[in-house]
Each structure stands twice: as structure tokens, then as C-alpha cells.
Specification:
Oligomer: single chain
Radius of gyration: 50 Å
Number of helices: 9
CATH architecture of the largest domain: 2-Layer Sandwich
Structural class: alpha+beta
Number of domains: 3
Helix content: 40-55%
CATH topology of the largest domain: Beta-Lactamase
CATH class of the largest domain: Alpha Beta
Largest sheet: 5 strands, antiparallel
Strand content: 15-25%
CATH superfamily of the largest domain: PAS domain
């Protein structure tokens, strides 16, 4: 049988009660120690003062020690108990309040007589607790107590009674404060969590319907709950945009896939009815290649969306040189030895897409130049053709998925530039267009240009030939 989890409200209430409980315990303990110290200190001062009076009486008029009421003294509502002993420890005088009782002497009296030491001790006289002070008597005077000791005692029952009352008061205060703190904490937490309950209910409703266009109720309070509501609404907005983009992507992909599949099925049906001929086989091969390119682009874009931040170090000049060497229509401009952290396969594919885009939209038979240069604190990869470039009003649309510019030569998927943007953003960079120049800016890791001669376009072209 599983136990129900403790709610946040209960945990906060318990924490508040525990904190108040600890505070009252510490405060109560300190208060008890202070009161006990004050009471016992006052009692000790009274015992010392009374012992001094008896010592002066023994030194000045020793005959009065045995006089009635000479040793009597009071502390509040109780009598002080006085006992005087000589140098041999024999009792020579005692207060009437002692009656037939005798105060305990023991080692304290011997220490006072033999070494002149004063000492406090706690003892019991029957069932009564006592606080005792033992002090030596001087050798001045001629009485029997000369060189002996005086023992002053007082009952601590009143002190203990007062401390017991204080303990009960502290205990009651502890319980009352804890209960009050728990009640106040529950009330405050309930009020504080009320907006959270509203957010939870609204979020539960959104989760049950799956409608990301709904929003959580706005909280106008400038606190953590209001910030949480704004954050969750921002998350829902992002989720709605992602779902909308996914829906458009699926619709566009379905439409784009339908065209080559329809042509492929039509040509296959023609071959099935009329037999294979070179033209029909060429159409089948062309449709299959177009479908394969489209699927490859879709997979590349999906991988860019799901891939982690790259961690491999690579030289951009070497990568550009390899790609340029494979295409006779490409010339290599400045190739600075710049090291970036990136995915070589993804960056090569992005560069090839930019080169293909330049061939498709530039003048037929024109050349395409690629270059690598340092731009500020970053690395810039550029591809430029001899055309005018896209009109400014379509620059942003050029990087959307499945968008193809009118008048482009050949059959494209409309995903090439979208893959370039996704690759640049995954590498912590960005892609931009200025005229016919497409640039990819990436974070620079190291610049090795000063360690080797630059690779100029004349040398690169000579190497290609």
C-alpha cells in the first residue's frame, strides 16, 4: 500500500512549525539559563553577605555568637540556616531555625579551617534541597569559634519552584507558537499557491485537449508565480510555432514527394503496358534520382535539427579547397587558415548547397568563387556568383523550406538553403546574403594564417589544372 505524498502546503507548514519550535526551544533554553543564573547568583550573594556578618561578629564580639537570635537571618520568606564550628570541627553556635538538625560539613569545613578556602556546594537536609556556603573564620578574637568556619545554608525549593513555572510557561509558549506558526503558514501558503492551482488546472486542460493555442491565465502579480505563468505561456507559444512549422513541413514534404512519386508510378505503369524503351527508362531513372535527392535533403535537414553542438576541430581552408577541387566551375579566392569547431560533413554539405545554388541562379556558364577569411573575431565562408543575387524582398524567404525562386534552372528540392541555415545555427553562427554573395559566419577557434603562406587563387587554379 503506497503512502500519499506530502503536499507542498503541508511541507511548508511543517517547516514553519519546526523553525518556530527550534527558535522557541533555543530562546526558552537561554531564558531558563539566564533566570536560573540570576536566582542562584542572588542566593549565593546573600549567603556570602551573611557569612561575612557572622565572621565580623566572631572577630569583634565572639560572646554574642551563642546569644539568642544572634545568628538568625531571613531570605525572602524563609530562614537562613547558620552553623559555626571551631578549629576541630565541633559546633559552637547554630541558628534556631535549624532546630535539631545539623548542617553537613564534610571536606568543605576542613578545607576552610586548614587552608582558609571558601566553597559553595549543593546538599540535602532530609528531603529539603540546600545551597551551602562554607567560609573560614579569622584567628582574631578570643571566642571558641576562632580559627573555625561558618556554614550558611538556604533552601533552593523556591528557586526550583520558580524555574519549574518558567519551564511550563516556555513549554506552553513553544506549543502555542508552533501551532500558530503552522496555522499561519497553511493560510499563507494556501493563498500563495492559489494562482499555482489555477495554472495547474489550466495546464491540465491544455494537456487533455492537446491544443497548444490555449494560454494559461495571466497573473498580474510581479512575483515568481507571475513569472512562471509568463514562462509557460512563452513555452506554449514556442510549442505552437513548432507544431505549425511541423505541420507546414509535413504538408510541403507530402506535396513535394507526391510529384516524383506520381511521375514514377506513371512511367512504371507505361513500361508495364508497353514494354521498356530507352525514353521511359530514362524518365524512371530521372524520377528515382529526384526522389532520392529529395529524401536525402529531408534526412539531412532532420539530422541538423536533432544533432548536438559539434566538437571536432577543422580547418576551413582545407575543407573549401577539397570542395573547390571537385567542381571545375568553382574558383578559390582568399583561403585563410582558420580553425573552427564543427562537423566537417555538415559544413561540406552546406558549402556544396551554396555552390549548387550559385550555379542554379547565376549566369549560365559563369564562375563561382568561394573564399575563407577572417571577419572581426569570427571566420567567414563566402560563395559568390556573377549574377545579381536574389531581390531584397525574397532574401528571408530564400532560407525557408521548399521555397524555390522563379526562373531557377534545373529541378531543386527547395531545401538547400534551409539546410545551410540549420547547419550555420547549429555551429553557433549565421548565414546572410548581400547581392549574390552568400556568407556563413562561424565562431573562430584559432587563426593559423601567420604560420603558413596564404593560398592564393592563382595557385589554387594552377593546382586544379
Amino acid at each position: 500500500m503506497s503512502l500519499r505524498p506530502i503536499t507542498l502546503r503541508s511541507r511548508v507548514a511543517l517547516a514553519a512549525a519546526a523553525a518556530i519550535l527550534l527558535a522557541v526551544v533555543v530562546l526558552g533554553g537561554a531564558l531558563l539559563a539566564l533566570i536560573a543564573g540570576q536566582l542562584r547568583g542572588s542566593l549565593d550573594d546573600t549567603l556570602v553577605a551573611r557569612a561575612g556578618e557572622v565572621a565580623r561578629l566572631s572577630a569583634s564580639t565572639p560572646a554574642l555568637l551563642s546569644a539568642p537570635d544572634a545568628l538568625e537571618g531571613r531570605l525572602g520568606g524563609q530562614q537562613l540556616l547558620v552553623q559555626v564550628v571551631d578549629a576541630r570541627g565541633r559546633i559552637v553556635a547554630r541558628s534556631i531555625a535549624l532546630g535539631g538538625r545539623v548542617l553537613p560539613q564534610g571536606p568543605a569545613a576542613r578545607s576552610a579551617v586548614e587552608r582558609g578556602e571558601q566553597q559553595f556546594l549543593d546538599a540535602r537536609l532530609g528531603a529539603e534541597p540546600l545551597r551551602i556556603f562554607v567560609a573560614p573564620l579569622s584567628l582574631v578574637g578570643g571566642g571558641e569559634a576562632r580559627g573555625g568556619a561558618v556554614i550558611i545554608a538556604a533552601s533552593t525549593a523556591e528557586v526550583e519552584s520558580t524555574l519549574a513555572v518558567v519551564r511550563r510557561l516556555v513549554l506552553l509558549s513553544l506549543l502555542g507558537a508552533s501551532l500558530l506558526a503552522a496555522a499561519l503558514a497553511v493560510a499563507l501558503v494556501r493563498r500563495a499557491l492559489r494562482p499555482l492551482s489555477g495554472l495547474s488546472s489550466a495546464a491540465r486542460e491544455i494537456a487533455s485537449t492537446g491544443d497548444a493555442s490555449q494560454r494559461l491565465p495571466a497573473s498580474h502579480s510581479p512575483d515568481e508565480v507571475g513569472e512562471l505563468g509568463e514562462t509557460l505561456n512563452a513555452m506554449l507559444t514556442s510549442l505552437e510555432r513548432a507544431r505549425e512549422a511541423e505541420r507546414r513541413f509535413v504538408d510541403d514534404a507530402s506535396h513535394e514527394l507526391r510529384t516524383p512519386l506520381t511521375a514514377l508510378r506513371g512511367n512504371a505503369a507505361y513500361v508495364a503496358r508497353h514494354g521498356a524503351d530507352p525514353e521511359a527508362l530514362a524518365d524512371l531513372e530521372r524520377d528515382a534520382a529526384r526522389l532520392a535527392r529529395l529524401l536525402e535533403s529531408l534526412l539531412a535537414l532532420a539530422r541538423e535539427d536533432a544533432a548536438d553542438t559539434p566538437g571536432e576541430e577543422l580547418r576551413l581552408d582545407e575543407l573549401v579547397g577539397e570542395v573547390a577541387a571537385q567542381d571545375p566551375g568553382v574558383t578559390l579566392g582568399e583561403a585563410a587558415a582558420l580553425v573552427v569547431r564543427g562537423d566537417a560533413v555538415a559544413l561540406q554539405r552546406a558549402l556544396e548547397n551554396l555552390i549548387e545554388n550559385a550555379h542554379r541562379h547565376g549566369p549560365e556558364g559563369g564562375t563561382v568563387e568561394v573564399s575563407v577569411e577572417r571577419h572581426g573575431s569570427g571566420a567567414r565562408l563566402s560563395v559568390v556568383d556573377e549574377g545579381d543575387g536574389p531581390p531584397p524582398e525574397v532574401v528571408e524567404r530564400a532560407f525557408t523550406r521548399f521555397w524555390r525562386a522563379p526562373g531557377a534552372r534545373g529541378e531543386g528540392s527547395g531545401l538547400g538553403l534551409a539546410i545551410v541555415r540549420a547547419t550555420a545555427e547549429r555551429h553557433g553562427g549565421r548565414v546572410s546574403v548581400e547581392g549574390s554573395r552568400f556568407t556563413v559566419d562561424l565562431p573562430l577557434l584559432r587563426d593559423l594564417s601567420g604560420e603558413r603562406p596564404k593560398l592564393h587563387s592563382e595557385a589554387a587554379n594552377k593546382g586544379q589544372s
